[in-house]
Specification:
It is a single chain. 32% of the residues lie in helices and 18% in strands. The strands form six sheets. An eight-stranded parallel beta sheet has the order 9-6-5-4-3-2-1-10. Strands 11-16-15-14-12-13 form a six-stranded mixed beta sheet, sandwiched between helices. Among the domains are: 27 residues; 212 residues, Rossmann fold; 114 residues, Immunoglobulins (Immunoglobulin-like, Sandwich). The longest helix has 35 residues. The structure holds beta-D-glucopyranose. Beta-D-glucopyranose binds next to loops.
Length: 759
């Protein structure tokens, strides 16, 4: 054992010596290069442009890009897609610019690259960290085979407001789960070695707190106490930094009234000084310029403010390019500030190995072999099946019988335009498998599938126009609503079971896609009500980019499978699950509200001074007159075709001290008729603290496969660090006292015990 330990120490110290000598070499290289650089060339490195052609997410696209590259006025590009185009742009930089400094090539590789996986919120519902890591690894493999070296991902913004369309891009409401996902994604993209040709620079975003916009309206003000930031919203970004993320994107919102992009506390004091981040920070799309509209000054002032705050690279807006020289001349920024930013960008290029081979990611053979490969396709199908959450299944409605007639109805049942989900900028909609095709692909001879559209996604032409900015997602049929409905009813009449595929178009969530109502559109609901009247088993498959208000659906459906937007293989994956070839195992990573008025509703809220004793209204208690406090569906919830029972919790001791550990064990039994996976979740509650503490906090989970009838002991080890929190001085502390500990299959249905933390 001792020898093993000694071996480990030697390896670790060898690694850190290698790291040090690597760092020293990098410093020498960058020092020498920077000595040759003019001020203009240094400022040029801080400039990130998009020539358009990709999906521009702001009003501006860059002009004169080729000329600027040749003049050394560009540090990187994004929105340039394809090995060929990237090679051409890189050739311009290394053949035509004076110092031949290669460019960074970024892209929004968000849930897969060309092969599109489920949206991140869907992926998070798998609670399967090795799988999430693999999704990022596969995305990096494809993206680097196509010339890219930088992914604007992962987005780790905690989001507790389903009105906010970008909730689709994150991992939900919980800081612990969010941190695990952040780490898995960074490791998947970077794989611990940026010098390889199949890894790329990850970029954690949007730093910080972007998910907490007032009213769920995108780009709106964020205002939050530091205690809440540190305990609830910052942990996932910190986890990405700890996992070695190479770059960070600042967010559009304000923090303490100062936009994140120009916020020195955020970008320097917290990120670099407290967290020790050594990589580069890029702005979001024109977020430097947007500080003019925030009211912080003109372009020169806000550019200087951003550089001084610790921003290194200016995305699209060219405030750095056009004003920093003047600001230096006027003493408004220092040479050191420009040098530091330039150095960090050059270091990123060095770590990627671009100075050794600027074309290392431009490899036609790799592109042909690795993009849209069978491996990627199979993974897309597997990931989708694991991301689905079964919310209801009365009397074994699902899985479907493999015989009889199925009426497949709904605007999303046979629709290629909306399968990929938001932020699939490199995905190809034509490759997506709609549910109708997936069900047919299953090739079950005894099953007859009849299809009818039944309704439009929405009948509102103005709404459709807003959603259709990137192409038609809401296609308004030439037939009247009544004609479509009649057709659906006629089809349903002939069936044994109705499967209705309804929900949101892909661009009803994502950037600049906030909604103040989070039901499925009313015309679709009308269709469902009509189908319900027929008295046949009604299975709902709901696609969406956000948690929805599912009151009617939960009450009236016989079975409900919530699939978010499942990516290109979604139709096959839905067939796998509906027919029972795969047993669903996803669990929600957001609480689903009863109505919009309850928002934000999240499981790990603070204790109040007037808590409710039950979920019934009590005068002078913290509750509503017209709705319960609890969400409609709790965080962590999700059914399986099987069922699981939990024994009482056994603890290894009644207390732990500040150096000790405590082990909590339950026996989980698969009591149903199917093999299946269960996500066993551990929560704690700190009973007394120096500040008000949450009623419940996720502290661990394990996703485990159980054969039918199988029992397994599942243990969690809790250390003192798991019980800590940031106090009102923003110090991470652990305070002795009593704790509750809960274990269960979701945040509400849990077994409970107590233990003590003693000095
Ligand atoms: C988004 C970012 C994205 C960037 C580049 C912005 O509008 O907020 O998430 O990475 O555009 O496309």
């Amino acid at each position: 054992m001792k020898r093993l330990l000694l071996g480990l120490i030697i390896i670790t110290s060898l690694q850190s010596t290698a790291q040090q000598s690597g760092d020293a070499k990098m410093k020498l290289y960058v020092d020498a290069l920077m000595k040759k650089m003019t001020l203009d060339e240094k400022i040029g490195q801080l400039n990130l442009l998009t020539p358009g052609g990709g999906v521009a997410t702001g009003a501006v696209v860059s002009k004169g890009v080729e000329e600027k590259i040749a003049k050394g006025q560009v540090g990187g590009l994004f929105g340039v897609i394809g090995e060929e185009k990237i090679r051409q742009a890189q050739e311009l930089a290394v053949n035509n610019s004076r110092l031949k400094i290669p460019l960074l090539f970024g892209s929004d590789v968000i849930h897969g690259y060309k092969t599109t996986f489920p949206i991140p919120l869907g992926l998070s519902c798998s609670w399967d960290m090795p799988m999430i890591e693999r999704s990022a690894r596969l995305a990096a493999t494809e993206a680097t085979a196509d010339g890219l070296n930088w992914a604007f991902s992962p987005m780790v913004d905690i989001a507790r407001d389903p009105r906010w369309g970008r909730i689709a891009e994150g991992a939900g409401e919980d800081p612990y789960l969010g941190s695990q996902v952040a780490k898995a994604m960074v490791v998947g993209y970077q794989n611990g070695d940026l010098s390889k040709d199949n890894t790329l620079l990850a970029c954690v975003k949007h730093f910080a707190l972007y998910g907490a916009a007032d009213g769920g309206r995108d780009y709106n003000t964020v205002d939050m106490s530091k205690v809440k930031m540190y305990n609830d919203y910052l942990p996932p970004y910190k986890a990405a930094v700890d996992a070695g993320v190479g770059s960070i994107m600042s967010s559009f919102n304000t923090i303490d009234n100062i936009p994140a992009t120009g916020n020195r506390w955020l970008l320097t004091d917290l990120l670099r000084k407290q967290w020790g981040f050594k990589g580069m920070v890029v702005s979001d799309y024109t977020s430097v310029n947007e500080m003019i509209d925030h009211g912080l000054g003109d372009l020169q002032a806000v550019s200087a403010l951003s550089l001084k705050a610790g921003l290194d690279m200016d995305m699209v807006g060219e405030g750095f390019l056009t004003t920093l020289k003047k600001s230096l001349g006027e003493g408004k920024v220092t040479q050191k500030e420009i040098d530091d930013a330039c150095r960090r960008i050059l270091e990123a290029k060095y770590k990627l190995g671009l100075f050794t081979d600027p074309f290392k990611y431009c490899n036609k053979e790799r592109a042909a072999k690795e993009i849209l490969s069978d491996e990627q396709k199979h993974a897309a199908r597997e990931f989708a099946t694991k991301s689905f959450v079964l919310l209801k299944n009365n009397q074994g409605t699902l899985p479907l019988k493999k015989s009889g007639t199925i009426a497949l109805i709904g605007p999303l049942a046979n629709n290629k335009a909306n399968m990929l989900g938001t932020w699939a900028v490199s995905g190809n909609r034509d490759l997506s498998i709609p549910v109708f095709d997936g069900m047919k692909n299953a090739g079950i001879k005894e099953v007859n599938i009849l299809y009818a559209k039944g309704a439009n996604i929405s009948d509102d032409t103005l709404f459709a126009k807003k959603v259709n900015v990137f192409g038609t997602r809401i296609d308004i049929d030439k037939r009247s609503a009544l004609e479509m409905m009649d057709e659906a009813v006629a089809v349903a009449k002939q069936s044994d079971v109705i499967v209705a595929v309804v929900g949101e178009a892909s661009e009803m969530s994502g950037e600049s896609a906030s909604r103040s109502s989070i039901t499925i559109p009313q015309n679709q609901k009308k269709l469902l009500k009509e189908l319900k009247k027929m008295g046949k088993p009604l299975v709902l498959v709901i696609m969406s980019g956000r948690p929805l208000d599912l009151n009617w659906e939960m009450e009236n459906a016989d079975a409900l499978l919530f699939v978010y937007h499942g990516g290109q293989e979604v139709g096959n994956a839905i067939a796998d699950v509906l027919y029972g070839d795969v047993n669903p195992s996803g669990k929600l990573t957001n609480s689903f509200p009863r109505n919009v008025g309850q928002i934000p509703v999240y499981y790990n809220h603070l204790k109040t001074g007037r808590p409710q004793a039950t979920d019934k209204f009590e005068k002078f208690r913290s509750n509503y007159l017209d709705v319960e406090n609890s969400p409609l569906i709790p965080f962590g919830y999700g059914l399986s075709y099987s069922s699981f029972s939990y024994s009482d919790i056994k603890l290894s001791a009644a207390s732990l001290n500040t150096t000790g550990k405590i082990k909590a064990t339950v026996t989980v039994t698969n009591t149903g008729n199917y093999d299946g996976e269960e996500v066993v979740q551990l929560y704690t509650r700190d009973m007394v603290g120096s500040i008000a503490r949450p009623v419940q906090e996720l502290k661990g989970f394990q996703k485990i496969m159980f054969k039918k009838g199988e029992s397994k002991e599942v243990s969690f080890t809790i250390g003192v660090e798991d019980l800590g929190f940031y106090n009102s001085d923003l110090k991470f502390v652990t305070e002795p006292g009593e704790f509750k500990l809960f274990i269960g299959g979701n945040s509400k249905d849990v077994k409970e015990t107590t233990f003590k933390l003693v000095k």
